Task: inverse folding
């Protein structure tokens, strides 16, 4: 599976987001914009993982959402 990460949204947690996605078996690409800021709150960690759009307020929430 592939995952796209917005480098601006992930901010200082970018490395953590990439590492977690890779551990879950995703091939990760870091993009300058994946278009989710217009759809979800700006400042969230926004990721497209496979067919799933993920928008989490913080890294802990991102971890929980990924486990579902």
Result:
């Amino acid at each position: 599976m592939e995952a796209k990460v917005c480098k601006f949204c992930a901010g200082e947690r970018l490395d953590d987001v990439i590492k977690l996605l890779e551990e879950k078996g995703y091939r990760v690409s870091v993009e300058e914009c994946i278009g989710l800021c217009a759809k979800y709150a700006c400042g969230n960690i926004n990721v497209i993982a496979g067919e799933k759009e993920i928008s989490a307020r913080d890294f802990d929430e991102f971890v929980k959402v990924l486990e579902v």
Observations:
- The mean pLDDT is 93.
- Residues 14-23 form the longest helix (10 residues).
